[in-house]
Amino acid sequence: MNMNFTGTVIQAKRYSMDGNQGASIFLTQPTDGDNPDVCGLEIMKMSADYSVVELLKNVLPCECDIVAKPVAGAQQKMAFKLVSIKPKTDSPTAKQPRPAQS
């Protein structure tokens, strides 16, 4: 079952090691207020395909519409894998796209 949500993506990074490729995105969301010991922004790491870095390279940080699926993470904890991501160009946090550097 996929989950849809919105968050401010602040970083995307990828790796290529021993023939394995992948990426991660880091996003923030306001805390939901359920935990009185947490204030500010929640930070979430999500695995993604290697190509996501190219998609986000010139627009981060920005608010994005995200679709993710739950997967088994380390130590049998639930984690999320990015299914799709769409930057909101009208977001107040969105950077203006920069031309690619040669």
Molecular structure report:
The protein is mainly β. It is 5% helix and 54% strand. Strands 3-2-1-4-5 form a 5-stranded antiparallel beta sheet. It is globular, with a radius of gyration of 15 Å.
- Rounded mean pLDDT is 87
For the secondary structure, the number of strands is 5
Order of helices and strands: EEEHEE
Low-confidence stretches: 97-102
The description of the largest β-sheet is:
5 strands, antiparallel
Task: Give the helix/strand class.
Answer: mainly beta
The number of helical segments is 1
Q: How are the strands ordered across the major sheet?
A: 3-2-1-4-5
Strand content: over 45%
Multimeric state = single chain
Radius of gyration, rounded? 15 Å
Helix proportion:
under 10%
The shape is: globular
Q: How far is the first residue's CA from the last residue's CA? A: 41 Å
What key attributes describe this structure?
single chain; 102 residues; mainly beta; five-stranded antiparallel β-sheet; 1 helix; 5% helix; disordered C terminus
Short description:
The protein is mainly beta and 102 residues long. Helix content is 5%, strand content 54%.
Set down the secondary structure blueprint.
Layout: E1 3-17, E2 20-30, E3 41-48, H1 52-56, E4 62-72, E5 78-87
Antiparallel strand pairs: 1-2, 1-4, 2-3, 4-5
